[in-house]
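Researcher: Structure prediction, please.
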Amino acid sequence: MDAIRFHLDEIVDPAVAKGLRRRGVDVTTTPQANLLHASDIQQVEFARTEKRILITHDEDFLRIAMAGTPHAGIAYCHLESRSVGQMIAALLLIRDCLSIDEMQNHVEFI
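Model: Predicted structure follows.
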């Protein structure tokens, strides 16, 4: 089974990526993927093509998912509702408990 990989939206604290990487998780960030200022649809398409779960605080991605746009999975966390450590723990739980197939077109609220 393929391991879940993540992609962080540009408004997610880069410390989340650092913490995930320290735990051996494959994660990209918007700046690293040269997607700064890209549209939300472009972000979703990048993550879908790369089979990465999109991590975001942006409610626009929830609207995109509700509109039926295909995606590899979205992990949504309301801005400032969780600490960096809590976000990392929740994302590790997603990685450990769900498969790539289960996350397909699924939104997980953390």
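Model: The chain has a mean pLDDT of 96.
Researcher: Thanks, that helps.
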